[in-house]
Design a protein that fits this description.
mainly beta; Thrombin, subunit H; 6-stranded antiparallel barrel
Length: 109
């Protein structure tokens, strides 16, 4: 099994604007070997009821990835998605395959 490459839009705090709100710069980070899974209809309904979000896909992130996947944009299949909720992560040494973290995404933009 092999995943695909996705582009993570990494935000870096650059300062504050005239209203004292934080400003960010964005850099693209390519993450290889990401699995993209289709949710079940039950998962879609559950996330809509719990979070008010329409779950589009679940991403499996490869072991050793140090990127921050919380509340960020991800590009794959030529479309932009936004992560939501906290990523769930297992213990690397106890998981036999190459992925140990899951992230939920919704369509964005």
């Amino acid at each position: 099994m092999k995943g695909v490459s996705v582009t993570l839009k990494k935000k870096t705090l650059t300062g504050k604007d005239s209203f004292n709100a934080p400003t960010y710069s964005t850099t693209d980070v390519v993450v290889n070997n990401v699995l993209i899974g289709e949710p079940t209809s039950e998962q879609i309904v559950e996330d809509l009821n719990l979070y008010g979000k329409h779950l589009a896909y679940t991403l499996a992130i490869p072991k050793g990835d140090e990127n921050d996947w919380t509340d960020t944009e991800v590009v794959f299949f030529g479309e932009t998605f936004k992560t939501y909720g906290e990523p769930t992560q297992g213990i690397e040494s106890l998981i036999p395959l190459s992925w140990n973290k899951k992230v939920k995404v919704e369509r964005y933009g």
